[in-house]
Amino acid sequence: MMTAIRRVMVSILGLAIMLPVGAQAGPKPDLVVGAIWATSKPILSGDNYIVSIAVRVENKGTANAGPFQIAIMKALEAPPGAESEVQFRIAGGPISGLRADNKLEISGIVTIAPRSESGKKLKIRALVDSQTQVAESDETNNVSPWFEVQLPIEVKLVSREVIHRPAEGLADFDLSEADITIFPHTPICGGVDIIVEANSRNIGTAEARDVAVYFWLLDASSRIKATRTEIIPTIPGRSSKKVSTAFGGNLVEMGNYWVKVTIDGPGRITESREDNNMAQKAFNVVTPDLSITAAEIEISPALPRVRDSIYFLVPVRNNGNGDALDVIVRYQILNNSGRVVLEYTGSELTIDRIPARGFNIYRLSSIDFTRIPEGDYALKISIETRKACKEPDMNNNRAERLFSVTR
Asked: Phi and psi (nearest 5°) for 249?
């Protein structure tokens, strides 16, 4: 007795193929949110509260995931169960993907609520692959549990929206977040100096002399990392002067930071009002995360012989959200007794730049085995950035590729 097998037709690359119903599907990614947490307390930025958060995404599937997006959802007071998406500015730009059985930590700034919601306790959660760009093995586990954020109670000051007419004969300094500029816009950990520029405005009628402008660099927990003071000789009435200062790139690691600027911090200059001299601006420091794997290192010729000149192709990946600059490559070749038979001892091999979430293929070329006998060998290779920066994962910066040389 023959058993009928029901089949369906699928099309792959334009070819019609019959598959049995119930045939096991191929490997697929499975994105889940491992955790969501705040990396700073909420603060006012203009007319809105913002908070720095981090989201850990895991790919528990059996295939790599391509580009995807993350949405941050906020629970609404009514109707019950309603939620809406809030703005989430991800550091380092779009997410290019996530390899199978890997994790990725994504940080950014959420515009969580308007100023009018001061003092409220809000709930947010993360939704991975919010635009359903990735075909997953399980589409029901893409949302994190709710996370509570307590907004501070605002101390009411004179509203800046109230029309203010400076008193005659007095200076009046005014500063807002829009007056602060940070270069580069997204600094790289261990990179160049961070330049902060403040457009110091005197909206009063009198000239101000020897104006002290104070700069604070604060981390996500509002701890002071460094301070600077710059002096503006004169700011005429109803005009402005730009002043800038520099913070060393070695002062910051990956994460969220704030710059606070105050004009005439000690209050030495008499003004018609004193509540508009300070502003602050958030920025994010990104970092590279270099990785190499033995399985991706290629050797040519594939079966080298004694007296061959061989080369290795080494894909160097940057899984971080910041560019990797001046990547240093070092290598050794050891025999099966662990003795070094060849080592790179000349000038440092470097790769100028590997973009964030990108890769570069480095070629170790013309390695001469003329004087090396047949046997089993290991290529040990390590990579690091010349910039002094702590990577999120330093365990994947080394690899060992085994190979044999025959006669």
From this structure: -60, -20
